[in-house]
Design brief:
Elements: E1 6-12, E2 18-25, E3 28-37, E4 43-44, E5 49-50, E6 55-58, E7 61-64, H1 65-88, H2 95-103, H3 118-133, H4 137-153, H5 164-176, H6 181-200, H7 228-236, H8 244-259, H9 263-268, E8 278-282, E9 289-293, H10 296-305, H11 321-335, E10 340-347, E11 350-357, H12 358-361, H13 365-377, H14 382-389, H15 394-397, H16 405-431, H17 437-449
Antiparallel strand pairs: 1-2, 2-3, 4-5, 6-7, 8-9, 10-11
């Protein structure tokens, strides 16, 4: 047995951008190309590793720093094992022998394949989604939540173990935990995007996995919103001095209801975005540039807070989403927004109906729905509403639309109006039968002057 001294250096190949390990021992030198690429601008030459937390993008391939480090470590381990084995056999390996032992007789131009765990693949997928779509914290949390659910259901799952049966058990796990069918379907929708990414990266899925659908009964979500009289009662309510927090969240809700803004856009609204008769925003979720006219009530809210000096020139002081929703429920209860709302959903094959007071379910997004529904109730064309909300198609706006009672009454009243007009015409015609022309002219003149 002999001790073979060797040195390694990890670097990025200038032409291919692939991570490479150079090995020197005795009178020999050779290099091993690893199965990953790295951005030279995100590489720490002293550590011979990618900078922590960086993502390295190349066409349709993405490598997180953690994944690259794992591949490097496994490559170095393979080289160490080869030298250890040669040392036991008292052999100083030649370049060809070492390459054969490390690469297991792979062609010289083929990179060393290092197997990635499903966890590493999912982390890489998350990094790519976060970078490509600039996801908000809530969406990043959603991706992590789905992974945690999968691991809780199947603790030791691997890519090879990811079968249709595993997905069936995951569906049953969700149902047993009390999740609604709509939530389960949404979770599998996110999981499907991971499968699409795996295939785009060249990974093979087990038969039936990609095409799997949970096939659960899902009913349309009850769209909750404030009717116009409820909105104005909420807006005009005078809170006590001890309820300033409730007054603030009420004002923020009403401003969103008067302008169609999402919570994320209200949070980012700056004084520079506000003009005399409109606001201009670039939405955080869809990156649409919108010009939204200001109603009288929206202007009143702006005037109420414009003298305040908030951080980064923001127009309002906006609480965290969770806190504002909690305070909204308290404010709505105090105002008496206690109209009953029937919520229907399925858990597996079980139909569940819940009757709740409106103040129990109100949230930030109800303001945006309120804008849509009240606007339609006033007879504002959907195209005009869409120009304020940023929806590109009518179908994209449909989830927010719940035809309000006022809309139904307004539209159906046209039948009564038309009938009454017809009756009046017939009645006048009967009464004016036999009347001479000069008298008719005088009647018309009197009606015009009335």
């Amino acid at each position: 047995m002999i001790e073979i001294k060797y040195r390694t250096r990890v670097f990025i190949d200038r032409k291919t951008k692939r991570v490479t390990i150079r090995v020197r021992w005795s009178n020999y030198e050779t290099s091993f190309t690893l199965d990953c690429k790295a951005d030279p601008m995100k590489w720490d030459g002293n550590l011979q590793r990618p900078m922590p937390g960086t993502l390295h993008k190349f066409d349709r391939q993405n490598y997180s720093a953690k994944v690259i480090c794992n591949i490097i470590d496994e490559g170095l381990d393979m080289i160490k094992v080869a030298f250890t084995k040669c040392g036991i056999d008292s052999i100083v390996p030649s370049k060809e022998i070492l390459k054969t032992m490390v690469r297991e007789k792979q062609p010289e131009n083929e990179p060393v394949k290092v197997k990635k765990t499903l966890s590493e693949l999912y982390e890489e997928y998350q990094e790519s989604k976060r970078d490509d779509r600039n996801l908000m914290k809530t969406s990043c949390y959603k991706f992590m939540q789905i992974w945690n659910h999968l691991i809780e259901c199947h603790p030791r799952i691997t890519l090879e173990d990811l079968t249709k049966d595993k997905l069936l058990k995951l569906k049953s796990w969700y149902i047993d935990k009390g999740y609604s069918n709509a939530t389960i379907a949404n979770q599998f929708k996110y999981l499907k995007s991971f499968f699409i990414w795996l295939q785009s990266e060249g990974y093979e899925l087990q038969p039936g996995v990609f095409a799997y659908k949970p096939n659960l009964t899902v009913v349309s979500k009850t769209v909750t919103f404030l009717k116009y009289n409820e909105l104005m009662a909420f807006y005009n309510y005078e809170f006590d001095d001890d309820d300033k927090n409730l007054e603030l969240v009420r004002d923020m809700f009403c401003f969103m209801a008067f302008t169609s803004l999402r919570y994320s856009d209200l949070e980012n609204l700056k004084k520079a975005n506000v003009f005399d008769d409109h606001i201009e925003v670039c939405t955080k979720k869809t990156h649409d540039k919108l010009s939204i006219p200001l109603t009288i009530h929206a202007k009143e809210i702006i005037n109420k807070y414009k003298s305040q000096d908030y951080k980064n020139g923001k127009m309002f002081r906006v609480y965290a989403n969770q806190k504002i929703n909690e305070l909204l429920k308290r404010a709505a209860k105090k105002v008496g927004l206690d109209r009953e709302v029937v919520l229907i959903h399925y858990q597996g094959n079980t139909r569940v109906e819940e009757v709740k007071k409106f103040y129990e379910v109100i949230g930030c997004h109800d303001a945006r729905r309120t804008f849509v529904c009240c606007s339609l109730a006033f007879g504002i064309p959907p195209t005009v509403v869409m120009s304020c909300t940023g929806h590109s198609t009518y179908n994209a706006m449909k989830p927010y639309i719940e035809v309000a009672d006022e809309t139904q009454k307004t539209e159906l009243a046209k039948w009564d109006k038309a009938e009454k007009q017809n009756d009046i015409k017939n009645d006048i015609a009967k009464k004016l039968e036999g009347v001479d022309e000069a008298t008719l002219i005088k009647v018309l003149e009197l009606l015009k002057s009335a």
